[in-house]
Amino acid sequence: MSLHERLPPLSREFVAHFGEMGSRWGINRTVGQIYALIFIAQRALNADEIAETLEFSRSNVSMGLKELQAWRLVRLKHQAGDRREYFEAPADVWEIFRVLAEERRRREIEPTLSMLRSALMQEPASDADRHAQERMRQMHDLIDRLLRWLDDVQKLSPETAMQLMGMGSTVTRVLELKDRVTGRTATRKTGDKEA
Question: What's the pLDDT score for residue 194?
C-alpha cells in the first residue's frame, strides 16, 4: 500500500508540506514529516506504524523520534499489554508553541545573547570597534526586550494570549494615536531614536 493509499489527501498535503518546511526550520525533511503525521494522528503511533505509513526506514524513524523527543515535541506513551513505544504530540497547540519557543531560545538565542553580553563588556580598541559595539548593543537590547515580552506572553493563559494576538492592529492604532496626542513621532523601523 503506497503513501497515497495510507493517508487521505488533506493529511498527505499537510505531511508533505511539513517535510518541505523542515529544512527551513532547521530540521530535516524526515523529521518534519514524522512530526506532522504524529500531530494529526487520531491516536498515538508506534515507530513501525510511522515507518510503514511514510515509507521510511525504521532506523530513520527512530532517529527522527529521538530528535523530536529532544525538542520535547512528542511524548512517549505505553499501552497495556504492548511492549512497543507509542508517540503523540501535545494536544494543545499553545503548549507546542511554548515548547518550540523555549527550545529555540535555549539553542539559538541565549548563546547569541551571551556572546553579545561578552562583547559589550570589552573595552573598544578603535572607532571601528566602538561602532561595532554600539550596533551589538542595539541588537542585544532588542533581543533582550523581545525575550522579556515573550516571557510575559508565555505566562498568559492560551485564551488571554489569543485575545492579545487578536488585538494587534487595535493596539497599534492606540499607540499611534498616543504618539499624535503627545506630539511624539513614531520610531523608524531602522532603529533610529525618536525625533
Answer: 45
* pLDDT above 70 coverage of the chain, percent: 92
Contact 136, 119 (CB under 8 A): yes
Q: Can you give the pTM of this predicted structure?
A: 0.71
Residues 143, 32, 26, 62, Cα dihedral to 10°:
120
Amino acid letter, 110: E
Please give the average per-residue pLDDT across 20-49, as a whole number. Answer: 91
Q: CB within 8 A of 41, min separation 6: which ones?
A: 88
Give me the chain's average pLDDT, please: 87
Question: Can you list the pairs that 81-87 forms with residues at least 24 positions away whose Cβ atoms lie under 8 Å?
Answer: 84/46, 84/47, 84/48, 85/46, 85/47, 86/44, 86/45, 86/46, 87/38, 87/44, 87/45, 87/46, 87/47, 87/50
DSSP H helical segments within the chain, as ranges? 3-6, 9-22, 29-40, 47-54, 58-70, 93-104, 110-121, 127-155, 158-166, 168-182
Nearest residue to 95 (alpha-carbon basis) of 75, 77, 110, 109: 75
DSSP state of 46: E
